[in-house]
Amino acid sequence: MVATIWGENLDVTQKKESTMMESFLVDAENSLHHRTSYPQSNSQGSSGDDSEDDPLDDPFLYDKFLPDPAWAKVNKEEAEARPKILVDPGPFRYNQRVFVTSLPAMILVMALGGETLVLMVAIGTTAITLVSQLGDSRRCVIAFVVIFIPSHIYIIASVLPLLWLSVWHSFLLVLVNVYVVLTACWIILQFKAFRMEEPALCAVAEQMLFTVYPLVCSSLVCWGLGAVLPVSVIPTVFSFIWFVLLQLYLVPTLSSFRSQATSDENLDVIQIPIVTITVIVFVCLGPFLFMFLSLLIPNTGPFSIMSLIHFVFILSLTLFLSTLLNIRQIFEYLGLPFTTAIYVRWVSGVLCTCICYPVLKAYGFDSHFLPLLPVAIAIFATLGVVLAFKKRQVIMAGLAFVLITSLIGLFVLWIHRMPHNLQHYFMGIFPLNGFYFLMCAHFLMCLLCLWTSSMDANDLLGILLVIQAISLSVCEVSLHNAGLYSTTLLQLSGLTATYMAYRMQLVGKVSHGAAIMATTIHVGKALAGATAMVLDGNGGGEVTLYSLVALCCITYAVASVFVFRSNNQTQLPSLQVAKDILMLLIALAVNCHHLLLPVAMLMFQGSQSYTNVIGLWCMLGGGLVLLYSQAVAGVSSADDNSSGSSNSTSQHILKLALTLASMGVIVMVVHPHLSLSFHSLFLWVEIISLFLLVAFLSTHPKLSPTRMILLLLCLAFCPGIRACLSLWPELHIANAVLCIAISGALFILVFVCIFIQEMTEASDKIMKYCIATVLLSCMILFGLDLTYFLSLPVNSPEQLSLWTMPVWRAVLVTGLVLSFVLKVVQTVKSPDKLPTTSEIEHTKGKISVSLMTNCITVFTFLVACTQGPDDSTLHDIWCCACSITLACLQRDSFLLPKLNGGEQQAAPTVAASGFVLSLATVVRSRTWWSIWPAGVWSLLGGAFEIMLVLALAPIFYCVWAMLWHGEIVSEPAVVFLTPYSVLLVLLASCYTAWVLAIAALVSGVWMMMYRLPMVPYSIDPTIYYR
């Protein structure tokens, strides 16, 4: 039979080879005929023309239509299978502008998520930063994805209940979803592994951050402002916010990830067609948003006269703002003169100015000067044109004098009709009885700044700009505290003045320091008004001098470090780095009451605990330091000469960020009270000890073994007391001492395993002493707890079961820590670092660390099975989950000498889970129920259920043999017994039997799809695969 089959296969092979040979000969003959016949025919034709360039005269034309030979296909397959050379295109260069764009929307999303989301983000950031210290960027990507998925689900779940209030909140759900996804794209661009694997996706993500992200952030901020602003104002505010953000992104910017394939390829992040589409959407979206909102406002219709005036005003405003963007590249791309944009700017500006009075009046701005506002805007615009005109200076000077005189007349007309009995103390300290003189001085200062800007005196203009900012802030804050100036106007004027200062510094009109000081004053004033409104609760809080100074400090620190710092400078010196970090942290600490407390009230649903403020300071400080480390890394990537030292500096900054973030998480979780009590003191000492522990892990100080052991014993005091308080209702001195000893031994073991580079006799001895100390302490603790348990009265509620003693949980946690730590050492340090036997002859009989680890792991699994839930099904699932502990088993010289990792590592877990499920199904079967009430059929069903469980046992045996030995025990057993798992599902009397049946079905299908050859039974597998 076998010979016959072998002969038939041989005949088929020979026929295929003969057919291939015949086709090859025919193709060769045709090609040869084509090459020899065409030149002869061409030579007989006319000459002297372009016939030699005819593509049909190519002698190899026929070869192009032939199929590729087998050797060519093999070469192509080998080239495709060859691993690609992965190159990092470089870090993302524009983290600062994305952070500034994302910050307001991030605060809003955090407020929607509450304290849980803040903790999830803080813990995730800490975990990713800790994983990055290992130097493997792939693990960072995996950790980020694992943390991002539940965070994203929680954010969506937090916003989803708002749909019950209004269907329009579906837009908010979409905005939050897009914001979270794009923020995740921004974060994942920081990982080197992702940039190397997916450079095309990085380029797409960068383009989305430059186009869609500003729109989404502006929409979220306007959605939040809709709670405090009239609905009719939202389109205008939205257009202004988006305009400011587009100033950062529409400038020609070199991409971080694009590579130039041809000389004509554009390497900008946003191509000119996309810039054109973005500008068109910016012009149209504001008016469209107004028309959409006018349909929702019950008092106004979309086709009333006032609505049409509003529509024309917003359309002209967006047209005017679009001409202020960097759109010259659009006109150059389209071949149009740029004077068209200038004409559009003037026409839209004039139209917007003419109709601004009724619009502003409808917005709620009430002033006797409002009818004269268009005249004042026109005079200021004309004065700017006159001062910018350099020819005919005498005539221009005369016109400027006339215009300035007109402005002074308008100012006198405005101030003449103001109330003259204004009496107020600025900040409650400085009297301002002559308040109008200060306003006049501010007006003259504005005119002087306007005149100085036309004289190219940049230093003088910077000084005047700072003085003007101070005088404007004094006037506005005084009017605000007197109730004559709204908080919204205070913030709008501050943000507008900040934008103008940034633009003037960008074009070189003012110096670097003057722009920072002006920005500090205006942003500090706006933040002071916002925080006063949040702290007061009624929207009318007064701005104090201390709050203004404190918020100016944090504004100066952030502006000088992140916003106005030059991107072209070389590596920062260590002293400058330390100065920047200290300035950021101190400025943040100064604002604990005026900035962190309002943020904590927004995020934690009105809670005013100063513990939350301390935890928030740690987390925000860690975030600022983390952002600063990325900025330092960006500078180091630009400076190749000093990359080594700058990378070291960036690593130290990253460790500091990790320490602060972990400190914030600990404070938020432990939540100690600020009171003079033993419990509060213990909580703060516990937090400080954990902080020192994280700092010790991050910095790796060089200490002698004795000093390190003493330090770790001191740090183990609080965790030992905490474990004792958590396990036992009363604090006993003996239990506390033993828990401290266990904690100290575990700390020493962890630190030795982290710091060792190779396994020496000293490190082996220290590890064994620590393990012996832990085991001995656990035995003594078990004896004390057992003595106390036996001394209880028989009917005592505490004497329920021997397995309910608290010492079992202590033993379980201790065993898990020991198993996991030693397994990590064996995996990370490579198997050679933990030998299975001693290398010295006279100590050859000593027990090895691996054997001790295996004994502890098996005992921990058995203890874990006794500490499961009371419910039978949950207890069985708990035991299966605890079998993961067996993944910590290692190769030793006695129990597991053949354990080599890989698939063998999963074999004990699979075997333990299958055994637990089988045993639990048999024990919980209906066979053991009482026979007479249940009936004979129930007894037969239970017996048949047990038979099915025994029939499925070979499947788990085959899985174990395949994982442990790498061999196939019986393919027919798997194929024919797997369908019986479906029958067990139908006849199961408990949930455990269902779980067993599903596990058997999955195991059988997995083996049939990926492991078993699945060859027909009539053919020998060895012949089939030969």
TrEMBL record:
What ranges does the record give for the region Disordered, renumbered to this chain?
A: 35-54
Determine if Transmembrane helix is one of this entry's keywords.
yes
Keyword Transmembrane helix carried by entry: yes
Question: Any transmembrane segments, and where?
Answer: 105-128, 140-164, 170-189, 201-226, 232-251, 272-297, 303-327, 334-360, 372-389, 394-415, 435-453, 514-533, 545-564, 584-604, 610-632, 653-670, 676-697, 709-728, 734-757, 769-790, 802-825, 935-963, 983-1008
Keywords from UniProt, A to Z, are: Membrane, Transmembrane, Transmembrane helix
Q: Spans of biased composition, class Low complexity?
A: 39-48
Write down what this protein is called: Uncharacterized protein
